[in-house]
Amino acid sequence: MELKRKKVSIYDIARVLNISGSTVSRALQDHPAISTEMKALVKKTAKEMNYKPNTMAVNLKRGKCNTIGVIVPNINRNFFASAIEGIEEEVNKMGYDVLICQSQDQYEKEKKVIGSLSQGKVDGVIASIAAGTRDYAHFNSLEEYGIPLVLFDRVAEGINAGTVTVDDYRGAYRVVKHLCAQGKRRIFHYAGFQHVSVWRNRYKGYVDALKEYGIEPEKEWVFVGNITREEGEATARKILRMKNRPDALFCTSDFVALGAMLEFLKNGVRIPEEMAICGFANEPFDELLRPSLSSVDQFSKKMGQQAARMLLDRLNGESWVNIILDPELIVRESSGMITS
């Protein structure tokens, strides 16, 4: 088995040439105090010895590494993949690369990632907060290292950062108004955990829209849990066991709506006649379902582009701003068409 070669350092080059390590370092950086002949000799020797500079050390010294860190809960969700695409497009134009990290919606993992990125790996961070995070001190620690932060989609108060969000309240409000326009009155809601900004704002929009129609949602109308297809299926089974079922279900995620709709269809429930369903995020699979799924488009790629531009502006000395995008309700077969 071949042993791993020891990495060549500037001190190894210095020993070969019988000069100091500082002279080697300055020669490699084209310092004006070093003669042209010495620079050429050092660079020639470094090449022959297969010397590779310590990128992290160079970045720490220069104070810049031309890399932007991006932290998302899960990269396998189309929303976050599309946002990353938008981020990468914008920062690449300005000569930056992207370092993508996943928190898996876990606080401890997110905290560890922030700690790692703060060690000279990135010039700035763009992040969407993990669902498991309730203490945000690790985000504020970036400021101590001079690393600017932009939050997108999931944000929180008390963090020194620019923000890019969609108006989740308005999106949910429009969904419920649409369902009411279809004659639905007993509208249930699957909400995510309420400490997460996006799910809390969607719940508020749901409640306020119902109240405009004189409807006060009862406690049993609202389900809270993880945003997964499996939770949607479980919720549908609970509803199917009820004597007084809803005539509509608004889910804070398309994945929950997908699970619920498939479970209802499996049990002979007619959609949208007996049960109208709407989701949120406008995932690519929505229009492929039968019936196709109504949802809210968050313009995730645009959100990523805006977050990237904001961070680049901050790196150039601009002040923070907060951007709120206007969502669009996409009406499909699962909720019926808007009546005239």
TrEMBL record:
It comes from Odoribacter laneus YIT 12061. Residues 8-62 form the HTH lacI-type domain. Pfam families: LacI (PF00356), Peripla_BP_1 (PF00532). It comes from the Bacteria. One of its GO terms (molecular function) is transcription cis-regulatory region binding. Keywords: DNA-binding, Transcription, Transcription regulation. PANTHER family: HTH-TYPE TRANSCRIPTIONAL REGULATOR GALS, LACI-RELATED TRANSCRIPTIONAL REPRESSOR. SUPFAM superfamilies: lambda repressor-like DNA-binding domains, Periplasmic binding protein-like I. This is HTH lacI-type domain-containing protein.
